[in-house]
């Protein structure tokens, strides 16, 4: 079982959105916040390309680096409000206890992902981050790398994510995608991106593991 | 034409969401942020009732007042990042120039709404706020009061809003509801709540006024 991190296991999407918005404003770019929300979870490179397209501005490498720094600073001010999402720690503990291999695959940097493992109580989780692959979501690289770390073909993995980018990447990896509403996308958007099933949150998925082929008895 | 304010004319929904989340956390309530997002725009009383139900806690009048204060304080720190949404000022100016009566009807307080009129360049707009009606959205009172101020039957009004609460209130008022995606709801959620048409933002609606019966020529 492969998990996205932000918006899926931890409740951090809105803080990232507001932080990107502040970063862009201080850089002189006024992009409506909902458009930033809809881009969260895709690779940083694609994010900046989409930005450039939507704002009709050129954003070179130096500008992208400045934006990333401004975003990190704004996020730091909001970091105290980031919590695990309902059911995350419980499901991960259950999978470990019943011998189901699992990993976390995030478009974020390892530096930002590691504190989240502490929040979730899984400091030794198998983790694949942006730094380790050539291309992030919606490319399949992150999920393919995570499946490889588990010695499992991606075709036999379930991918759980909150954004259309997770579900698109899951399809390209050949995995079955499960959506959760905790990132603030609508159910319909996730289904249209190819979700096999959509649950409210990880707690809701945990209650319905039999629907996705994982028996509660292990 | 009747307009919701936050998330429809001004880009303030995500700041409100994050501010409510901070207020709730400092009150000891950890409600996932997406659930707060889905409640924004409904009346404060219903918001608190929904909160109490979802968190299984009692929230009395004093607690509700404390939460409202904590929310205002958190919002204050984010207020600098609030901007008008694309097309808002242009459409309102066009309606005024072509003699189409319009008003703004918001579940927020007058105190919070008035600075937004300045942002939009319409300090003298017809405005109905939470303080003036018995019940806020999804009850129809705000839109009925706004229609009355325009001396127009609500049945002949178009209501523009970003949340399902706007569209539900529009239907109860007998008005035709138009949705915009700028509050971060999905298209499908707005259509299911009864939107006659859904546009990306006010700029997109402005380009398609003929679809809703308003000719560009006035």
What is the residue-mean pLDDT of chain A, rounded to a whole number?
91
Helical residue percent band of chain A:
40-55%
E-strand count of chain A: 6
How far is the N terminus from the C terminus of chain A? 13 Å
Outline the biggest β-sheet of chain A. 6 strands, parallel
H/E element string of chain A?
EHHHHHEHEHEHEHEH
**Structural class category of chain A:** alpha/beta
Radius of gyration of chain A: 17 Å
- Ranges of chain A where pLDDT stays below 50 over 5 or more residues in a row are none
What is the compact description of this entry?
Two copies of one chain form a homodimer. The first copy, chain A, has 218 residues and is of the alpha/beta class. In chain A, 46% of the residues lie in helices and 9% in strands.
Q: Which secondary structure elements does this structure contain, and how are they paired or packed?
A:
Two copies of one chain form a homodimer.
Chain A (H helix, E strand, L loop, with lengths): L1 E2 L9 H14 L6 H5 L6 H12 L5 H18 L9 H10 L5 E3 L4 H11 L6 E2 L12 H9 L8 E4 L2 H10 L2 E5 L6 H6 L4 E3 L2 H6 L11
Parallel strand pairs in A: 1-2, 1-4, 2-3, 4-5, 5-6
Helix pairs in contact in A: 1-4
């Amino acid at each position: 079982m492969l998990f996205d991190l932000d918006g899926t296991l931890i409740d951090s999407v809105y803080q990232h959105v507001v932080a990107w918005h502040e970063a862009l404003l201080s850089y002189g770019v006024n992009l409506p916040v909902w458009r930033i929300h809809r881009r969260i979870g895709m690779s940083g490179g694609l994010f900046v390309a989409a930005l450039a397209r939507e704002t009709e501005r050129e954003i070179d490498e130096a500008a992208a680096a400045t934006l990333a720094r401004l975003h990190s600073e704004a996020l730091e001010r909001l970091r105290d409000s980031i919590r695990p999402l309902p059911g995350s720690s419980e499901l991960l503990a259950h999978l470990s206890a019943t011998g189901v291999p699992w990993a976390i695959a995030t478009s974020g940097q390892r530096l930002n992902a590691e504190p989240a493992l502490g929040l979730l109580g899984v400091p030794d989780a198998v983790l694949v981050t942006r730094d380790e692959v050539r291309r992030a979501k919606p490319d399949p690289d992150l999920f393919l790398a995570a499946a490889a770390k588990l010695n499992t073909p991606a075709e036999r993995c379930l991918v759980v994510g909150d954004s259309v980018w997770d579900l698109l990447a899951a399809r390209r990896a050949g995995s079955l995608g499960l959506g959760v509403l905790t990132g603030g996308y609508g159910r319909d958007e996730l289904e249209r991106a190819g979700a096999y099933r959509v649950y409210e949150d990880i707690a809701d998925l945990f209650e319905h593991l039999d629907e996705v082929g994982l028996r509660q008895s292990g």
